[in-house]
Design goal:
Structural class: alpha/beta
Number of strands: 10
Order of helices and strands: HHHEHEHEHEHEEEEHHHEE
Largest sheet: 8 strands, mixed
Number of helices: 10
Distance between the termini: 45 Å
Strand content: 15-25%
Helix content: 25-40%
């Protein structure tokens, strides 16, 4: 694949990196990434994937933009209130980088559509806000052998990990999502964002970190968060990493 003069200028800072260069940028352009949720985490995630030149971004979200979303969901804007989030995000990507294709899925991920949606992409990034979808995405990605970068946020804190449970690291099987979280918590135990509130900029931190993990997977560089859970405490601005293993 060759790059146009516009693409060469657009991606010049990537092309200067020995770890990326022309071959890496071609990998980005050929990649297909599915983003689950176009909300607080999905907004910066989609923006940075598009800016990086990921060739095809799929977006799954059945919700519409609300005024209360705009405090943190920075891919949307006041004029898009009331519109489908996937359409708002698609238009934002087109403004940012016309070389990126967007496939919109205005549905909620469920047991009936999960396999068809997930298997159509190379990597999945989960930015949803409910445990049912997180566990479904993790279970089906493992079954379909699709890398999953999953993040979650609370009021002032967040977490991030990468899952490739069908592979091994130094001969040891990688852990899966249920090795970290065996089962969803009882309904009502963990308050939602609408109930507890959230610091808007926190989603930008975690969404950007999530995009970084996705780009590293595409490029095949660095050390991913497989078997490691990154914990972010925004109040103390402390980053900690804990290791976890597959259970016997």
């Amino acid at each position: 694949m060759t790059f146009t003069s516009d693409e060469i200028e657009r991606y010049s800072r990537h092309l200067l990196l020995a770890e990326v260069g022309g071959p890496g940028q071609q990998k980005l352009r050929a990649a297909r990434v599915l983003v689950l949720g176009a909300g607080g985490l999905g907004a910066p995630l989609i923006q940075y994937l598009a800016a990086a030149g990921v060739g095809t971004i799929g977006i799954v979200d059945d919700d519409v933009v609300a005024l209360s979303n705009l405090q943190r969901q920075v891919i949307h804007a006041t004029p898009t209130v009331g519109r489908l989030k996937v359409e708002s995000a698609r238009e934002a990507v087109a403004r940012l980088n016309p070389h990126v294709g967007v496939e919109t899925h205005a549905v909620r991920l469920d047991a009936e559509n999960a396999d068809a949606l997930l298997s159509a992409y190379d990597i999945v990034a989960d930015g949803t806000d409910n445990f049912e979808t997180r566990f479904l995405a993790a279970d089906r990605c493992a079954a379909l052998r699709r890398p999953l970068v999953t993040a979650a946020v609370g009021r002032f804190d967040g977490s991030l990990t990468t899952l490739l449970p069908w592979e091994t690291t130094q001969g040891v099987p990688n852990p899966g999502y249920r090795d970290l979280f065996p089962a969803p918590p009882p309904p009502g135990l963990v308050p939602s964002c609408a109930e507890a509130g959230i610091l808007g900029a926190l989603t930008g931190i975690l969404g950007s970190l999530q995009a970084t993990e996705v780009l590293k997977l595409i490029l095949g560089i660095g050390e991913s968060l497989v078997g490691r859970l990154l914990l972010v405490d925004a109040l103390s601005m402390r980053f900690e990493t804990i290791r976890y293993k597959r259970k016997a």
